[in-house]
């Protein structure tokens, strides 16, 4: 199956505009077998299915990553 190279994860923010994080496909697969995407820092990581379901993946200890409210193919 073909997966997009890049997504935008949209997080709700208390400010006027949403927070948008761009993530790129990595060589890793998540627990569900779908590609893991990460931002340039490697801190924001998400497993994204072909149907657009998102599972955030912790990149370090003591993280409780928020699920984005939307994703967009970029």
How many separate domains make up the residues?
Answer: 1
Q: How much strand?
A: 35-45%
State the total count of DSSP E strands: 6
Return residue spans where pLDDT drops below 50 for at least 5 consecutive residues. none
Q: What spatial order of strands do you see in the largest sheet? A: 5-4-3-2-1-6
Explain what the structure shows.
The two termini are 18 Å apart. With 74 residues, this protein is mainly β. A six-stranded antiparallel beta sheet has the order 5-4-3-2-1-6, with no helix packed on it. The chain is globular and about 35 Å long. The chain has one domain. It has strands at residues 6-11, 19-29, 35-38, 45-48, 54-57, 70-73. β1 (6-11) and β2 (19-29) form a beta hairpin. It has no helices and six strands.
Furnish the topology, listing elements before pairings.
Blueprint: E1 6-11, E2 19-29, E3 35-38, E4 45-48, E5 54-57, E6 70-73
Please provide a brief summary of the model.
The protein has 74 residues and is an all-beta fold. The chain has strands at residues 6-11, 19-29, 35-38, 45-48, 54-57, 70-73.
From the structure above, extract its key features.
globular, mainly beta, 74 residues, 0% helix
């Amino acid at each position: 199956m073909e997966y997009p190279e890049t997504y935008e994860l949209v997080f709700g923010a208390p400010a006027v505009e949403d927070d948008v994080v761009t993530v790129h496909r990595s060589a890793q697969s998540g627990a569900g077998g779908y590609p893991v995407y990460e931002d340039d820092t490697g801190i924001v990581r998400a497993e994204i299915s072909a149907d657009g379901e998102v599972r955030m993946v912790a990149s370090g200890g003591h993280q409780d990553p928020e699920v984005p409210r939307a994703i967009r193919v970029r």
